[in-house]
Amino acid sequence: MLKAATLGFLLLCITGMTGYSQQYMHSTSKVYVLRLKPHEDLKKAIMTFARENNIKAGIILTCVGSLEQFNIRYANQPNGSKSNGHFEIVSLVGTFSDSSSHIHISISDKTGKTLGGHLLDENLIYTTAEIAVAEITDVSFSRETDSTYGYKELVISPKKD
Question: Model's pTM, two decimal places?
Fold first, then answer.
């Protein structure tokens, strides 16, 4: 079951190639709460939710839960690292839309060792994932290649009706 609430907040947009300029935009949002069940794929579920709800600009507010398998790409590495076991989700942050995402996850193992990186497909829920996301209703996210390092980076625009 999804529940929505409206909330106002201030969005800070960082732009510019060589320096930073700040642009402030007042925006409104809807907050949704999701619960994923065992064996569901965390990233695929978020992206399916975004597509089904036509979300053009989404942010992850919080997430608690557990994984039975993680698949994470560590910083500046070409491939992901996958492992099975029981892991606590200690953090999930990022931006997403109905067409793309940039999400990071931190997890801990049974000894408390924590690791994190880019969320890939095949992060499978163990017991649950309780996720709060916000849709920024008057903004649109897209991704364009930034020539600095060649990665597709976030572009923030007013949403077109």
Answer: 0.84
